[in-house]
Target: Tetratricopeptide repeat protein
Amino acid sequence: MDKDDPGRLTYMGFTHRKLGNIELGNMFYEQAIAQDPGNILARSYMGQGLVEAGDTAGALVQLRAIQEHGGAGSWSEASLRKAIETGTTYSY
Model:
């Protein structure tokens, strides 16, 4: 797999976020989104990280972007919406 593949970058971001490396995780998410603005999974994971950091406004920006990129009704939208509402994020 190409090291710059948006899917790989998304999971690198997820891994680093879950290890507590929030800034590094966000760097990977931003790279994934830059390559594929419609990467709703990266947006959801990034938004969940923003929720964990107390940045609800930033998480809402990602939620709206998910919806704008056709992700309404998807797991990505539902999981981020729930995280915003409850503060609980997912580990998968």
